[in-house]
Amino acid sequence: MVPLRSLALLLLAAVAAGCDSPRKELDRHELTVAVKSLGSLSAEAEVLAEELEQQHVTEAFALAHQQALAQESLKLSEQLAKPVPAKLEAPQQQAAQLNLRLRQTLLQVARAARPEQLAQLRHGLQEVSAEAKSLEDAL
Questions:
Q1: So what's the pLDDT on residue 2?
Q2: Most buried one in 38, 77, 84, 120, CB count within 10 A?
Q3: Would residue 65 count as lying in a domain?
Q4: How confident is the model at residue 24 (pLDDT cuts 50, 70, 90)?
Q5: Among 19, 16, 30, which residue's Cα sits nearest to residue 84?
Q6: What is the dihedral of CA 83, 86, 91, 95, to 10 degrees?
Q7: Is residue 77, in this structure, part of any structural domain at all?
């Protein structure tokens, strides 16, 4: 027989796990917040690339900051993977694709050796920011 205390802990754990369940639909407001976060992350990555290009930060700092931004992007991808109502499927897919582009570009920043590489990465991040803003406005 399971003690009452153990049963209560199991029940509490099950409730807590269900609070942010991937089965919970992402509504328009949550998708808008996610898209704003995407634009913000992209802008921050762009600043990081610019600071690295101008040699205002060390490579070690850039790598640590890059990893932190990549973690935030990963959290965002988990949020964007939630189911959505049919009318939000297209913008959700656009946001997920933008987030993927952000992460792919971001992971190259600290390794970029030449200023022209960093400039090209910054350009890609600017495009992601602009597309995120357009998507946000469309929501």
A1: 44
A2: 38
A3: yes
A4: confident
A5: 30
A6: 10
A7: yes
Q: What is the DSSP annotation of the chain?
A: ---HHHHHHHHHHHHHHHHT-TTSPP-HHHHHHHHHHHHHHHHHHHHHHHHHHTT-S-HHHHHHHHHHHHHHHHHHHHHHTS---GGGHHHHHHHHHHHHHHHHHHHHHTT--SHHHHHHHHHHHHHHHHHHHHHHHH-
**pLDDT tens string 34-54:** 999 999 999 999 999 999 999
Tell whether 3 is covered by a domain: no
Number of domains in the chain: 1
The whole-model pTM stands at 0.80
Give the lowest-confidence range in 12-16, 86-90, 107-111, 129-133.
12-16
Domain of 52?
A: 27-138
What is the spatial distance between Cα 114 and Cα 108, in angstroms, rounded to a whole number?
12
Helix (H) or strand (E) holding 11: helix 4-19
**Is 117 part of a structural domain of the chain?**
yes
